[in-house]
Amino acid sequence: MQNFHHIIKTNASILPWVFLLILMACVPPKILSVRPTQIPEEGQIDVTVEGENLSKATIAVDGEQAALTSQDKEKLVFTAPPHEEGPVTITATNRNGSDSFGGVVNVSTQEPRVDQLQPSAVDIGGEIPVAIKGDHLSGIESRIEGIAPRILSRSKAEVVFVAPAHEPGDVAIDISQPGSDYTYQATLFYGNPVIVGLKYNDIWEALDRKIKQRKMAWTDKAVREEKRAKYRTRKDEFISYAKSIGARVVDKFEALPSLITYTDSDDV
């Protein structure tokens, strides 16, 4: 016991360093960045992981162990394995724990196909998620007037971004595939929060239903024509008003709930 106290006393100055080394040896890895963040489906390229406590870590891509080519405390390099198109998770693991990084996608060498924007119309205030839908989209980039919007998610079938605020009107969304000549231009409509979610004919269908429901009261042809004229006037005035404030008529409720609706009252 006396020898133990003697050792502690004579080596007191180095004890903090000993404890620090012990603590460092018990720390799990931490991933700070991965480069590149887009990997071809066939893999076989070097991917660099930077972070902390990586010297004893192994790397897995969606659970599949990857071969390391170099490694130290703050950086390691591995060979990307083949993986189907879509987002992947890179996980570093040592005996004390693990850390994952999800901002990586495997991209296809096939040309992207854009089918539609959903929704195709948004409020001028922005901050609305918009999905680019199609196929082989994992690696695409999009820009609105030269500025890349914030991306929420990526997959083979869709890329979701946040539409920024913009003045009313049609705005071009430029879509490209880095490393290829592919380009595509979609159109996103910005309007004030009055967007007519009715087909033009819905107005007349609603009128016909109303006539049938109240045929006892509306049997007179002149009354029916008067009602039709009121509907026609309301339709024309409303569409004119919507356009004047930067809104437009769309075929269905594809953007925002309409703030103005056609009532089912007699006073139409």
List keywords for this structure.
single chain; 268 residues; Immunoglobulin-like; 3 domains; five-stranded mixed β-sheet; 17 strands
- CATH C-level class of the largest domain is Mainly Beta
| CATH topology name of the largest domain | Immunoglobulin-like
Ranges where pLDDT stays below 50 over 5 or more residues in a row are: 194-200, 251-268
Number of helices: 4
CATH superfamily of the largest domain: Immunoglobulins
Q: Tell me the radius of gyration.
A: 31 Å
Widest β-sheet, arrangement of strands: 2-9-8-4-5
Structural class, by secondary structure, is: alpha+beta
Task: Characterise this structure.
With 268 residues, this protein is of the alpha+beta class. The protein is 22% helix and 37% strand. It has 4 helices and 17 strands. The protein has a 5-stranded mixed sheet with strand order 2-9-8-4-5, with no helix packed on it. The chain has a 4-stranded antiparallel sheet with strand order 1-3-7-6, with no helix packed on it. Strands 10-12-15-14 form a 4-stranded antiparallel sheet, with no helix packed on it. Helix 3 packs antiparallel against helix 4. Mean pLDDT is 76; it is low at 194-200 and 251-268.
